[in-house]
Amino acid sequence: MDIKPLKTEQIGIQTLEKRLMKSESKISLKIGLPKEVSNDERRISLTPGGVSILKANGHEVFMEQEAGEEANFSDQEFADAGAEVAYSIEEVYKKANLIAKVAPPTQEELELLDNNHILLSALHLGNATEKFINTLINKCITAIGFEFIKGEDKEFPIVRMMHEITGSMAVQVGAHYLEKGEGGQGIMLGGISGIPPATVVILGAGITAEYAARTALGYGAQVFVMDNDLARLRHLENALDRRIITATANYQYLSSALEHADVVIGAAMQEGERAPCLVSEPMVANMKAGSVIVDTVIDQGGCIATSRATSHSMPTYTVHDVIHYCVPNIPSNVARTATYALNNVLVPYLLAIGDAGGIKECLWSNTALRNGTYVYKKHLTKKSLAELFDMPFREIEMLIASQI
């Protein structure tokens, strides 16, 4: 009997397709997929399978030439699925009324946005500027941020997907840079018989931390998880059968743990807020030479004082003899897997907009997209952003209810 390998990439989209194939939506969306141009971004928002589902429901998709190339999806695959391949970014923005992209628009892309465009993308709180927000407001853009999309179950589905990938990848990165050839101590993460394993300290006890801990345990490392939320620490201890060591993230425990750490993974964050800075520069200075810091929340401002954003092309730098890896979009390095993950979350939201008859009607009924909206009808609708930039805001529910 032949045992064939599972088509792991396709399982999610096959399940999605069975569930979502139906009659045409109330309105036809014109969805634009521009090629990502910023910060080594290699992902794309939709797969060819996702495009075929949208086409079956009466929507149009305009994809910039080679937009899926970095995630190993060809133009021909998208064309066969029903997308129209455009030969310039200007053509995509002109033909589409909804732009679905991964990274926030660059200044050049902001200029291509027209009044009443819908923008569905990440915001990257750590790099967001008042000028960026004001441009969206002045152009009357409806902007929905991946970081803010939260369902009635209180889960952040896109954030969770990317955090699962990020947590697993962070440990792989840490193990790689511990190697002597990369400037590290020259040690294995898991050790071998008679030689103790490396110590991994994880800051935070959320989804990224959980998947980082699972991966580190799989390598055989000794794992410490530190957070000030005792309920999260208890949950993680139980979920991982008490194979990790937990501690509150106070100065005493942090200082002691960092002195012995071989890899530190920064994963402390608050959804929709800037990351709390838990580690000071003196703490970093007391770490072992050749140890590694992977700050996975650098796009939210980072949780380590010596962290500054890097890129996939130049991913590391050294401070106090400690290697820092601070790439904001870690999942981009596994762009194909991450694209499937994004697609499986985004396609139902796009169908919901069409089924509702438009973005206004959908925001009234769809909790997740309503929570995700941060600019609507020339108003900032997120209190956290208003406080960050000292700008006025209005609740999205009030704007919709007042028929603005």
Could you characterize what this model shows?
It is a single chain. With 404 residues, this protein is an alpha/beta fold. It folds into two domains: 8-148 and 334-401, Rossmann fold (3-Layer(aba) Sandwich); 165-328, Rossmann fold (3-Layer(aba) Sandwich). The chain is built from 16 helices and 15 strands. The chain has an eight-stranded mixed beta sheet, with helices on both faces. A seven-stranded mixed beta sheet has the order 9-8-7-10-11-13-12, with helices on both faces. The longest helix is centred in the last third of the chain and has 22 residues, at 335-356. InterPro entries: Ala_DH, AlaDH/PNT_N, AlaDH/PNT_NAD(H)-bd, NAD(P)-bd_dom_sf.
Characteristics of this structure?
single chain, 404 residues, alpha/beta, Rossmann fold, eight-stranded mixed β-sheet, seven-stranded mixed β-sheet, 16 helices, 15 strands, 39% helix, globular
Roughly how many Å is the radius of gyration? 22 Å
The end-to-end span amounts to 64 Å
CATH architecture of the largest domain: 3-Layer(aba) Sandwich
Whole-number mean pLDDT: 91
How would you summarize what this structure contains?
By secondary structure, the chain is an alpha/beta fold.
